[in-house]
Structure formats: structure tokens, C-alpha cells
Design a protein that fits this description.
Layout (H helix, E strand, L loop, with lengths): L9 H12 L5 E2 L10 E3 L4 E6 L19 H24 L3 E6 L6 H16 L1
């Protein structure tokens, strides 16, 4: 578990690269915002989180299943992660920020990647 990265993951780098190529400029992991969003568009007051399906308990996703061992621990851990995600989103919205969540399963195939990038671009332009 100590080797699992929290920042600059492959899905995050893929999305950041695509957004940069499209001309968007952003900040990363701003510590002054709740939850330290992965990508921050300060001038637009919009943030993007890239959530790992397993770590954030993505429902109805084959990547988001529960571990086979120590299930009581993992059930509690993932429930706390989901509660934290809801609290962070609520705090950001209360502070006037708009939030977009991208799940890593949406960055697994070429078709899904292009759909996800289009969705994030629409979010930024709305």
C-alpha cells in the first residue's frame, strides 16, 4: 500500500496532458482548498478530482470491488473515503467552486478517454 501514489498518477497525467494540449492552464493540488483538488482552474472557480475506482468506492464499476481479505477494514475505510469526498464537495460548493469528478475507469479506453475529455471541456466552458 505504501507504493500507491496519491498524486501524479497515470490517469491524472493523461487528463492533464490532454487539457494542456487543448489550451487550458491550471494549478495542481492546491493545499488551500478542501481536499487538495487534482486540477484547479482558479479563474473559472472550477476543480477536477480524478478518483480511483477502488479507493473512492465507485459503485457499479468492476474496478471498484471490495478486497477479498480483511473485508471489515476495507468496508469501513471505503465508507470513510466516500463520506470525506461528499464533505469536500459540499465545502467547495459552499465556497463558490464547481466540482467535476472523473473516475479512472473512464480513462481506460480510447473511446472513453475522448468522451471524458469532452465532458471535462464542457464542464470548463459552462
Amino acid at each position: 500500500m505504501s507504493r500507491v501514489r496519491g498524486k501524479n498518477t497515470a490517469p491524472e497525467m493523461l487528463l492533464r496532458s490532454a487539457l494542456h494540449r487543448a489550451g487550458y492552464r491550471y494549478s495542481l493540488h492546491r493545499k488551500d482548498l478542501p481536499g487538495k483538488p487534482d486540477i484547479v482552474f482558479s479563474s473559472r472557480r472550477k476543480v477536477v478530482f480524478i478518483h480511483g475506482c477502488y479507493w473512492h468506492g465507485h459503485e457499479n464499476c468492476n474496478q471498484g470491488g471490495l478486497a477479498k481479505s480483511n473485508q471489515a477494514f476495507w468496508t469501513d475505510k471505503l465508507a470513510k473515503n466516500r463520506a470525506r469526498d461528499r464533505r469536500v464537495t459540499k465545502d467547495l460548493k459552499a465556497a463558490g467552486w464547481q466540482v467535476c469528478v472523473v473516475w479512472t475507469c473512464s480513462l481506460r479506453s480510447i473511446r472513453k478517454i475522448s468522451d471524458t475529455i469532452a465532458r471535462v471541456t464542457r464542464f470548463l466552458e459552462s
